[in-house]
Structure prediction request, 327 residues.
Amino acid sequence: MNVPTRRTAFRLAAAGAGATAAATAATTAATAAATAATTLAHGSSGRREEVTTFVFVTGSNGMATGDAELALRGHRTVGVSLPGHGPEQQFHRAYQAPQDLAKLAEIPSPMAGVTLDDYVEATVNVVRRVSRYGPVVLVGGSLGGSTITKTADEVPELIDRLVYVGAYCCTKLRSPADYLETPEGRTSLGSAILPAVVGDPRVLKAIRINWRTNDRKFLDAAKAAFMAEATDGEFLAMLNSSLPDESLQVSSADARGRKDAWGRVRRVYVRQSLDRVIPPALQDRMIREADEATPGNRFEVFTVKTSHAPAPRAYRRITDILDRLAK
Prediction:
């Protein structure tokens, strides 16, 4: 395996930060097929009524998922299918046990050349479609924060609220990779993913992680970094629902929002107080800098006691917060 440079390592950490909320939401929702809106509310007359739609943007390595509990509470939920993030595009026989790591290292990646602009285009398309039915709450976890910020730049009038769940929100610095270089970011344990890198990112033009390794040292380090309070079963379920490949470009792309667009959309930050990938000090810095950029539109802040990838019991508290936002 080629050893990444320090700068690439931070990019890997930024990208690896996202095998998280979306993967956990998939466990909570008990379905990985929520790529279209679920549950449409009707009145007693049969007339379709306005209903809040929660649009979820995964962090890196995640699949499109909604939240079944929110649907059961009367809302619509939909996960954005990001370019290259289809499991049918990323899962190969070489990834199955017994693994053929030499072959896996050479398979072309569907993430090669995928940019933040591509993620934003996919998200804008979903927001446009669902906004005709009522308010839209756009939720981003981890690296998904970059996507929801730039989506708000494109269609601020269609978004009722932005929700950052332990996510990057760039204002003074241009990208997640830049924030990881700060004193607050340097304590991140996101580099725990580095021993599982397969292939040369410069050749693949993507980052490929072997989440299905059985290397005990890697698994212990990754659990401590991403999901420390989870059971082993919950942690392994999260890993096995994560996609191996992520874009090499998204974590270093300019993800700053414009004050006249993103800056006028109401926003919420869900702090994750046990996060060791995007540490609480870094979350607080991003909240503070965003509030300084738009003092007339400050974050509404909630705190949940959870690691970067919430276990199901912690994610239920996030669901409760989201549910209240729609009322």
Remarks:
- The two ends are 51 Å apart (CA to CA).
- Residues 6-325 form a domain with the Rossmann fold fold (CATH 3.40.50.1820).
- The beta strands are 53-57, 76-79, 136-141, 161-165, 206-208, 245-247, 267-272, 300-304.
- DSSP finds 13 helices and eight strands in the chain.
